[in-house]
């Protein structure tokens, strides 16, 4: 009995969730499956196969993959180095690497836009040394660059957390049993941090795949990602049915890719926090 | 030794990558010239302009209001929900957790759009729609922080207290609350962080004339970069610095709550 | 920790109390929708001070963007400023209210010539009040561009300037350029003509530095690009900040536009909207706005008090021989609109 009463505590949340999570998803479903005049259609969903939309989706995938890989490549060694540090300054150094991630998302975009522009700081410095300038702004590379900067924390933190949970004794034991440092890495450290890696990948890949603000601001209108297509359908073309159809496709896409990731590393979600 | 210096160099490079943009922003915020590359003398003028710009200040106020209020309500709803879910049987728990994961797994843009569709149908967009949307994507973070603490908590003490005649509320306050408090607190912090940093959801659910810092900077950036924004960045960076310092090295950190690294 | 937490609770509750007060649908507000960078923020503050009406000010980038925001119906706008063809479209759809000119006495300050222009989309001058007008042309940097070639849109396809060209990030404006080169009307709905224009634009894409609207003038002032397709006023503004810049309206012809205010059907505060319109027609406010946006103002009194140099500037106030060579945009039918937006997306996603 007591338990039943306690279960009721979840009531407000349940109502909230039905009203503001399930119902909105239902709305997307409704718009996706109807025409402007309210008749049933699958056109909005199948229009993902239109060449413009497919192109945008593939470009998004490509950039998101690149971003995820770069983040992973940067984060893993960083997490290892941070984790191996000892002494008083350890806390401070970790702090230093976490601080920039607390800047507002938009301001981080602003910073890169300013650095990368034709007459920006980077090109001026390069010019000073007689080096040719970079024409990065308004290209997909600029978008990837900024995505990495924006989403790096989501990769570093779960990996670092997973790594700091490894007991030093485990590694010592492996070494005592004659494992070389490579073996220790592949047999002990990597498997034990896999959950962190998986949640890091998820937390970087999804926002990178669906972002529209970064490509809007750094792509100079030349980089059309699937997020931009959806945003434009809603905000420019007044075609909510198409926008919903594409959102639905994107949603399924994200969930499937995440399920795939999760099946490779159990309890991936646990590392998020 | 070689390994050590390689590590140092690597740390330094990443450090540069992370801080270069911020340092440039801070330097430029004191630059009297509007140029991005020429130093025209020291000035505090951009700060003055920033503080006298009512739209910027309003956006700042809205951001704080939205993130505090939504994090607070989300913490309340989420903690209650965690208590309820914890009492459920396995199947109920699985269903609830599955649903809780929806906003976490959904792309921001989809969450934002789905809520916009709902609001447009039934009401008008305004400040309250932004707050509702933020609460919605914040609750799961609270639940995910509180639930593990509940699972670790010692139930028998609570049962014993009840058997000894304590009211459920008193028993909860004396026994369960102290055990889950760190989880509640870090859930609150995380919700607030997410809410502060959000752009997409706000973008789709905000009403006329309402801006958080993120949406404000977005619209301003599409009109061109103004030096006041450098000043804004510098201030926000300092705020983040103080907050993080407080959370990591302040009183709560010593108690081992470590809210900041999450 | 507990103290901090309860302090937070108190603070938030206090905040929510205040926001609750401000958030109610109080009668004394005015919701305005306008292009970006198109109204001096100080003027808004002045208006609020003088009348006690709280202005909820919202901006958009392209007319299509505005149309969506309005039709979404999620916000009840009281007053909207947009371009000729969009006003016409909304009048056709019955979305516009008549303005009570008795409440806008200062509209007499506006040159009747512009009301005459406005008749092309608002035949009886019932629905709209002109705000600014101008043309579209090429803003270029004299040090980077061969000046003998800027009299033609073709220079935007010149490979010598690869990576230095800024195009308009607005469907109708970009297509206008291509259609004019091909010698077609900028209001064509002929699929073949539009397709040809699209091919031209796709061909141009590798040369384009970026597609921008409001940001173009800043990029030009900062010399990040050699030329940009901009509205005349932006050029006038940019010239003030960088003397290397110049402006030309190509000989193939261009688009002449008038941006006007109208009161949409959904307006909840029509009287406030009219008060605001009257305020905008005031000489000092027109001046303030002119200094901020630098487009041709139809306000005679404001124009007369400008520097003679500016009054005679062919960039800001385009002379008749240029205007005669310009066409006004007309709204397209729904099918052509959809067609055009697909063509535009294909350009944007082209490699």
Q: What features would you describe in this structure?
A:
The complex is a heterotrimer of chains A (273), B (262) and C (351). With 273 residues, chain A is mainly α. Chain A has helices spanning 2-7, 11-32, 43-46, 51-84, 89-98, 105-116, 121-128, 140-165, 168-176, 181-210, 213-218, 226-235, 240-264. In chain A, helix 8 crosses helix 10. The two termini of chain A are 33 Å apart. In chain A, 50% of the residues are buried. Residues 267-273 of chain A have low confidence and may be disordered. Chain B is mainly α. Chain B has a domain at 61-225: MetI-like fold. Chain B has helices spanning 2-29, 45-52, 54-87, 90-105, 108-122, 127-152, 155-163, 168-197, 200-205, 213-221, 228-249, 251-254. In chain B, helix 2 crosses helix 11 (228-249), helix 3 (54-87) packs across helix 8 and helix 7 (155-163) packs antiparallel against helix 8 (168-197). Chain B is globular. Residues 254-262 of chain B have low confidence and may be disordered. Chain C has 351 residues and is an alpha/beta fold. Chain C has two domains: 28-133 and 257-317, Periplasmic binding protein-like II (D-Maltodextrin-Binding Protein, domain 2, 3-Layer(aba) Sandwich); 134-256 and 327-349, 3-Layer(aba) Sandwich (D-Maltodextrin-Binding Protein, domain 2), CATH 3.40.190. Chain C contains 15 helices and eleven strands. In chain C, strands 1, 2, 3, 4, 5, 6, 7, 8, 9, 10 and 11 form an eleven-stranded mixed β-sheet that branches. The longest helix of chain C has 22 residues, at 2-23. In chain C, 50% of the residues are buried. The model of chain C is unreliable at 1-5 and 14-24 (pLDDT under 50). Classes of the chains: A mainly alpha (273), B mainly alpha (262), C alpha/beta (351). Chains A and B meet through helix 1, helix 2, helix 4, helix 5 and helix 6 of A and helix 1, helix 3, helix 4, helix 5 and helix 6 of B.
């Amino acid at each position: 009995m007591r338990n039943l009463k306690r279960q009721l505590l979840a009531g407000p949340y349940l109502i909230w969730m039905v009203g503001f999570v399930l119902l909105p998803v239902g709305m997307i479903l409704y718009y996706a499956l109807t025409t402007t005049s309210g008749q049933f259609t699958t056109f909005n969903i199948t229009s993902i196969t239109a060449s413009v939309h497919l192109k945008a989706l593939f470009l998004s995938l490509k950039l998101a993959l690149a971003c995820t890989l770069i983040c992973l490549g940067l984060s893993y060694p960083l997490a290892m180095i941070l984790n191996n540090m000892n002494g008083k300054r350890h806390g401070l150094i970790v702090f230093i690497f976490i601080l920039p991630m607390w800047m507002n998302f938009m301001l981080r975009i602003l910073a890169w836009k300013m650095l990368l522009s034709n007459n920006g700081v980077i090109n001026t410095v390069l010019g000073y040394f007689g080096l040719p300038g970079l024409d990065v702004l308004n290209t997909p590379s600029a978008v990837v660059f900024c995505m990495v900067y924006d989403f790096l924390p989501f990769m570093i933190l779960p990996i670092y957390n997973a790594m700091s949970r490894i007991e030093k004794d485990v590694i010592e034991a492996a070494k005592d049993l004659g494992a070389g440092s490579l073996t220790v890495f592949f047999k002990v450290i990597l498997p034990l941090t896999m959950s962190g890696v998986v949640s890091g990948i998820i937390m970087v890949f999804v926002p990178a795949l669906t972002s529209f603000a970064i490509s809007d601001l750094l792509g100079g209108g030349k980089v059309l990602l699937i997020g931009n297509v959806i945003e434009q359908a809603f905000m420019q073309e007044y075609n909510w049915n198409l926008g919903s159809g594409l959102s639905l496709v994107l949603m399924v896409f994200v969930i499937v890719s995440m399920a795939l990731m999760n099946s490779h590393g159990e309890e991936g979600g646990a590392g998020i926090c | 030794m070689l390994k050590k210096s390689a590590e140092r160099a690597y740390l330094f490079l990443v450090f540069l990558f992370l801080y270069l943009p911020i340092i440039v922003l801070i330097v430029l915020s004191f630059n009297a010239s509007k140029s991005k590359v020429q130093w025209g003398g020291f000035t505090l003028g951009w700060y003055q302009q920033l503080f006298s710009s009512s739209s910027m200040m309003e956006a700042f106020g809205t951001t704080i209001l939205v993130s505090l209020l939504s994090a607070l309500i989300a913490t309340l709803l989420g903690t209650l929900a965690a208590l309820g879910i914890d009492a459920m049987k396995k199947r109920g728990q699985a269903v609830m957790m599955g649903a809780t994961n929806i906003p976490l797994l959904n792309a921001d843009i989809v969450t934002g759009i789905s809520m916009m569709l709902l609001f447009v149908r039934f009401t008008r967009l305004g400040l309250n729609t932004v707050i509702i949307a933020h609460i919605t994507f914040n609750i799961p973070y609270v639940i995910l922080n509180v639930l593990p603490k509940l699972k670790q908590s010692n139930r028998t003490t609570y049962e014993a207290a009840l058997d000894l005649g304590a009211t459920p509320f008193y028993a909860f306050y004396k026994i369960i609350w102290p055990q889950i408090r760190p989880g509640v607190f870090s859930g609150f912090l995380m919700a607030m962080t997410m809410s502060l940093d959000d752009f997409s959801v706000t973008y789709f659910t905000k009403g006329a004339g309402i801006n958080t810092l993120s949406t404000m900077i977005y619209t301003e950036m599409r009109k061109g970069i103004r030096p006041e924004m450098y000043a804004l960045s510098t201030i926000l960076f300092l705020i983040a610095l103080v907050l993080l310092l407080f959370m990591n090295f302040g009183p709560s950190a010593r108690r081992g709550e470590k809210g900041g690294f999450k | 920790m507990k103290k901090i937490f309860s302090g937070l609770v108190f603070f938030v509750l206090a905040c929510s109390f205040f926001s609750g007060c401000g958030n109610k649908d109080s009668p004394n507000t005015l919701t305005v929708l306008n292009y970006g960078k198109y109204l001096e923020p100080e003027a808004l503050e002045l208006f609020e001070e003088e009348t006690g009406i709280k202005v909820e000010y919202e901006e958009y980038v392209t007319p299509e963007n505005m149309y969506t925001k309005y039709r979404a119906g999620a916000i009840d706008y009281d007053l909207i400023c947009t371009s000729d063809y969009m006003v016409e479209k909304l009048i056709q759809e019955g979305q516009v209210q008549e303005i009570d000119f008795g409440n806008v006495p200062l509209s007499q300050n506006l040159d009747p010539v512009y009301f005459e222009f406005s008749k092309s989309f608002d035949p009886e001058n019932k629905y709209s009040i002109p705000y600014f007008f101008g043309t579209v042309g090429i803003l270029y940097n004299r040090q980077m561009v061969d000046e003998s070639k800027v009299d033609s849109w073709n220079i935007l396809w010149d490979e010598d300037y690869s990576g230095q060209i800024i195009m308009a990030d607005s469907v109708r404006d970009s297509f206008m350029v291509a259609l004019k080169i091909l010698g077609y009307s900028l209001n064509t709905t002929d699929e073949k003509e539009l397709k040809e224009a699209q091919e031209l634009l796709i061909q141009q894409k590798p040369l384009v530095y970026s597609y921008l609207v409001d940001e173009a003038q800043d990029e030009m002032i900062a010399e990040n690009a050699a030329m940009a397709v901009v509205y005349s006023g932006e050029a006038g503004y940019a010239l003030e900040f960088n003397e290397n810049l110049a402006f030309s309206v190509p000989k193939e012809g261009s688009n002449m536009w008038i941006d006007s205010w109208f009161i949409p059907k959904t307006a909840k505060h029509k009287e406030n909207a009219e008060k605001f319109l009257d305020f905008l027609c005031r000489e000092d406010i027109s001046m303030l706005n002119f200094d901020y946006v630098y487009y041709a103002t139809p306000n005679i009194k404001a124009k007369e008090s400008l520097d003679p140099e500016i009054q005679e500037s062919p960039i800001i106030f385009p002379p008749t021989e240029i205007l005669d060579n310009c066409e006004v945009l007309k709204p397209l039918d729904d099918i052509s609109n959809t067609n055009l937006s697909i063509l535009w997306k294909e350009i944007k996603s082209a490699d």
